[in-house]
Amino acid sequence: MSLNPTRANLVNRGVTAAHLSTPFKAEADAALAEFQATRSSLERQVRQGDLTLKVAREKAAAAAAQIRERLVKRAEGYSATPRIFVDRLVAVSEARRQARRNASNEALQREIIGLLRQSIVEQQMISRAGEFEAQAYQRPLHGGPAAPTLKSLIGFHDAARIAGDDTALEWTRRHLESFRLRGLTPEENRLIDQATDRPDRVNDRTVSRFIEAMRGQPAEALEDFVAQALESADANACAAAFLLA
Prior knowledge:
Elements: H1 5-18, H2 25-48, H3 53-76, H4 83-101, H5 105-127, H6 129-136, E1 137-138, E2 147-148, H7 150-163, H8 166-178, H9 186-196, H10 204-214, H11 219-232, H12 235-244
Antiparallel strand pairs: 1-2
Helix pairs in contact: 2-3, 5-8, 7-8, 7-9, 10-12, 11-12
């Protein structure tokens, strides 16, 4: 057991990072190869008597300092993501921040209406609970009290979405979330994520799926993804876009 757990953790992370391939690694490897070539040339000149050991060491130190300075400057402004991709996100973020500062009475009214609608949904969920249970609960073949199943809840959710019943949708989302404690398969969790997704709330699992799907894509695909995320105002897509940037 390490006497310094924090140091051991940093060492492990450093070893792991050293084996990961990154866009900047190619530049670092090229710089290292350049220094090794310079060092080999100096060693050859020392063996041939063209340079003294002291002069060779000074030249090697100067070459190392020059390469280090070049890499540091390159790293400070380096980004594997195209600059236009980051600039676009920053511009939209600043525009939204300015809009919040200048919130009009109309925006405040919309917020109040949203809170009132949420309050109404909460009240209706209580009064309509029996109606929802009758449609979404199933009685087991071997007997016993009726209970919801993942399949019945997904079906009820789809029906509520088609009917535009916000109260039924919210009631189903909450029951689906409770199923996560049952040790479901990745596919079943994906179905729940799709059903419980809310454009105004961030779901870490959905964000991770977006990032995994866009990893390694060309700049044009990233630009298109950002445009769609901003246009749809989807919190998960926008969060993924910021993380990719």
